[in-house]
Amino acid sequence: MTEPVAEVRDFSLSLVRNGVRSPVLRHVDLDIRPGEILGLVGESGSGKSVLALSLLGLLPPESHPVTEGRVTVSGVDLLAAKIDELRRVRREVLGAIFQDPMTSLNPTMRIGRQIGEATHDDAESVRLLETVGVRDAELRLRVYPHELSGGLRQRVMAAIAVAGRGERSDGKEARPGLIVADEPTTALDVTVQAQLLDLLRELRDDFGCSVLLITHDLGVADQIADRLAVLHHGELVEIGKAADVVRNPQHEYTRSLLASRLTLTMPRDERFASTSQAGEGDPEPAVSIRELRRSFGVRWGRGSKQDIVAVDGVDLEIAAGEALAIVGESGSGKSTLLRIVAGLDRPTSGSVTLAGDGGPQMVFQDAGSSLTPWLSIGETLGERLRPLKLSRSDVRDRVTEALAAVDLPPEIAKARPGELSGGQRQRVGLARATMIPPSVLLCDEPTSALDASLAKNMLTLIRDLRARIGMTVLFVTHDLAVARLMGDRIAVMQNGRIVELGPSEQVVSAPREDYTRALLAAVPEIVEGAAS
Amino acid sequence: MSTTLVPRWRLKPVAIGGAHMARPTAWALVGLLVAVTLVALFARQLAPYNPIQPVGALNLPPLSAGHLLGTDGIGRDLLSRTLIGIQVSWLSALVVVASGLLIGGTIGLVAGATGGWVDSLLLMRITDLFLALPGALVAIAIVAALGPGLFNTLIGVALVWWPYYARIVRGETKALAARPHVEAAKLAKVGRVRILTRHLLPGVVPTAVITASLDIGNVVLLLAALSFLGLGQQSPAPELGADTARALSQLLSQWWVPGIPGLAVLLLTLIANLGGDAIRSLIPVRR
Questions:
Q1: Distance from C-alpha of A150 to C-alpha of A157, rounded to nearest angstrom
Q2: Is A432 on the interface with B (CB under 8 A)?
Q3: Buried b vs exposed e over B104-124: b needs ≥16 C-beta within 10 Å?
Q4: Final residue in a domain of this structure, among A412, A437, A462
Q5: Which residues of A fall within a CB distance of 8 Å from B2?
Q6: Chain B residues contacting A via beta carbons under 8 Å
Q7: Which chain B residues have a beta carbon less than 8 Å from that of A364?
Q8: B180 interaction partners in chain A (CB closer than 8 Å)
Q9: Measured distance CA(A338)–CA(A493) in Å, rounded
Q10: Which one in A227, A298, A341, B29 has a CA-CA gap of 20 to 30 Å to B77?
Q11: One domain for residues A10 and A46
Q12: How confident is the model at residue B188, as a pLDDT?
């Protein structure tokens, strides 16, 4: 039984991107043993997803892959295999769960038919759905993917991935030997993420299949993986027992990955906490939200209309210079609340009062789409200065100054958003929001699309800017660790209401509400000294 | 659904992938569009004879000495008539498409960016009204009412042509207006007009240009058809559709007299359509 399910031997790969051939993987050696969960971690661009595609035999032909070495799954070299052979291996041995469960399910097919493609039997489909923890499985067979939540969709994917492979060519009833899960929890809330990780472990225990779990989060990997491989710029820099890699990393890169993790226990920088006391003679809060409600009318099927309440009576006051972090899962109404404060959406009832001038400014979640693609960075930033009617050279000076404030060189002003990296784009977004001090800075998950190290830089930058110009900050995030770091106070939102509000240290260390406790418990933490 | 693929907006073609046509082929077809436009612009200089005066024997076949494409029933040079005919058809088609793009694009842009009742009650219902009428028939009716003639024909066709662009541009604008970059611009207190011209318009241009270029062929055809019915350019001035119609009785005896202007229409339409396709494959469009 020591024969590995999948073997990657001296595997190098280059792909053509934007007309340029560049190496993606370099001399990767990897074994996946039967019944193990192998975690594969690395930052974006490290080549981990491409390795997953190679293991599924799904390298995109339009990027003209050139490969060296071998990728063997159950004895078949996927790089050299004929199309029939490949299909057989995929059908009998492999299962896949991808990052975005919406795009990996066919939106025009009912769930039952999609699982049926693997099982050819409704009773079996129902049994599988129950195995992966879908309640009312029989009813779910008749719905379309868009009618399910993100967590449920990922469970359906898991059900398809572990579906029986029917008669194998050697006559035995087979289960998949290897499930490749590419960031299966990234799009999910922490509580759902925890459930899905449990599910993967159960599937391994019940069916004895191996799992290749690709993630950027070392905490996730530590929680579930038996062994851990670290990929950096296409090279495998470290592989070993998960507990060893996480608690006693050998390679420098692994150490830096660990160091850039944001945790609930990392020290907060106390010098920022003091800024809120600075404006003591100012009784007027910077932002006051009264009885705020926002509901959306949604039409269900034929005729019947139903109101969905996104924000359900929120009262909140933010003092001048204070930073408040709002935490909640998707659908809790935190983004809607932020958009109303920004003036991008109108409340159904209630009011928002902003003190001071400068107006609200916002840093968006997706920096790429928040910058106009055909305008240069200089033009975009310059637009903020138009009301001031400055001369051309003054505008250029102010733009250079604003870029310098977010650690970007002045040449960036000539570039277009498409030429910048994700981190640079988000800095530009921050520069635009703060180049004229806003009355309140609204941040909508500005780091959720960034790698851990970049995210950390970004957060430090926001805090530095806040200290420099004494901004009031409203920070929306789903990540309690980020909230604790950024907020003087934390507000926990659930179903449109604020269920807990208090000083951030207190909310994290001594939560009053069950919901807050559940959120905290679901955060994947690396517990020191728990190595076994 | 936040794929962070950032589109390349500039006209610089992407090197590999996406294009349905080989890049050199596409550029060659665009070159053909330019060539036809140049021919149309300089038709007077290129034409060897006066297209209205009889200059040779009657009904000379193509490749006759001095008359490359032959002559028609009253001895006019067919090459000269066809060249001037191309000028009239092609430039008219460009004018119609450009004016359609201008009217329709402006209405679509304003409707898409403003939204609310201006969009749904006013502008788009007017557009729907025009779309609901059979275009060619309305054009004929307008021309008949204004009186036949090239200028009136252009007005007639332009009036029925803009709603398509209004629809397309409005849809594209609405999609763009929902993107965060427009919200960010609003937060930056950028004025309405500037949002329209700087943050929305450049994003709509590729789609609009592609649609328009694919449309030139249709307009050439419609104009020829109207002239064929006697509503466009009046005789004796050369017009491809009218020339074909007038000489139709000669089709069996001297095929080239109606055939050559007819073939010219075919060729123009073909070049316009292929060129439009080529432009589409060269402009990367956000999806």
A1: 11
A2: yes
A3: bbbbbbbbbbbeeeebeeebb
A4: A437
A5: 365-366, 369, 449
A6: 1-2, 4, 6-10, 14-17, 179-181, 183-190, 194, 198-199, 202-203
A7: 180, 183-184
A8: 364, 366, 369-370
A9: 12
A10: B29
A11: yes
A12: 86
Helices and strands of chain A, counted as H and E runs: 21, 19
Same domain, A336 and A411: no
Instruction: Write out the residue range of the structural domain in which residue A482 sits.
Output: 264-294+308-359+471-522
Helix (H, G, I), strand (E, B) or coil at A290: strand
Contacts of A452 (CB under 8 A, 6+ apart): A43, A216, A217, A257, A260, A261, A262
For residue A268, what are its two tokens? 């907060």
For chain A positions 235-294, those within 8 Å of chain B (CB to CB) are none
CB atoms inside a 10 Å sphere around CB B127:
21
Provide the shortest C-alpha distance from residue B150 to chain A (in Å). 40
Of A19, A372, A422, the CB nearest to B185: A372
| Max Cα–Cα distance, chain B, nearest Å | 75
**B1/A416 touch (CB, cutoff 8 Å), yes or no:** no
How many residues are present in chain A? 532
Contact A18 B202 (CB under 8 A): no
Claim to verify: residue A404 and residue A498 sit in the same structural domain: no
Whether domain B23-282 has CATH 3.20.20.10: no
Q: Tokens 């109404």 map to which residue?
A: A333
Give yes or no: residues A151 and A272 share one domain.
Answer: no
User: How does pLDDT run along chain B (287 residues), one tens digit per residue?
Assistant: 333 333 333 333 333 334 445 678 888 888 999 999 999 999 989 888 888 888 888 888 888 888 888 888 888 899 999 999 999 889 999 999 999 999 999 999 999 988 888 888 888 898 888 888 887 888 888 888 988 888 888 888 888 888 889 999 999 999 888 888 999 998 888 888 999 988 999 888 888 888 888 888 888 888 888 888 888 777 788 888 888 888 888 888 888 889 999 999 999 988 988 888 888 777 765 43
Which of A383, A385, A420, A436 is the mutation pick for testing B, counting most B CBs within 10 A? Answer: A383
Which of A103, A344, A374 lies at the smallest CB-CB distance from B9?
A: A374
| Cβ contact, residue pair A344, B187, below 8 Å | yes
Domain count, chain A: 3
DSSP B198: I
Q: Does a structural domain hold residue A272?
A: yes
Name which of B9, B188, B203 is nearest A384 (Cβ-Cβ). Answer: B188
Per DSSP, what are the bridge partners of residue A324? Answer: A474, A489
Other C-beta atoms lying within 10 Å of the C-beta of residue A423? 19
Q: Is residue A459 part of a domain?
A: no
Choose the closest CB to B188 out of A62, A383, A418: A383
In-domain check, residue A451: no
Which of B5, B172, B181 to probe by mutation at the A interface, max A CB count within 10 Å?
B181
Chain A residues within an 8 Å CB radius of B1? 100, 102-103
Who contacts A457 (Cβ-Cβ below 8 Å, separation ≥6)?
A: A423
On whether the CB atoms of residues B203 and B172 are closer than 8 A, the answer is yes
Same domain for A345 and A372, yes or no, is no
Nearest residue of chain A to residue B179 (CA atoms): A369
The kind and range of the H/E element at B240 are: helix B240-246
Are both A335 and A396 inside the same structural domain? no
Joined tokens for residue A404: 């310098």
Q: Are residues A365 and A352 in the same domain?
A: no
Can you give the residue ranges of every domain in chain B?
A: 23-282
Residue A408 lies in a domain: yes
Chain B contact for A386 (CB, 8 A cutoff): yes
Q: Is A230 helix (H, G, I), strand (E, B) or coil?
A: strand
Are A429 and B183 an interchain contact pair (Cβ–Cβ within 8 Å)? no
- Verify that A112 and A179 share a domain, yes or no: yes
Cα(A344)–Cα(A348) distance, integer angstroms = 13
How far apart (Å, rounded) are the C-alpha atoms in residues B152 and B146? 6
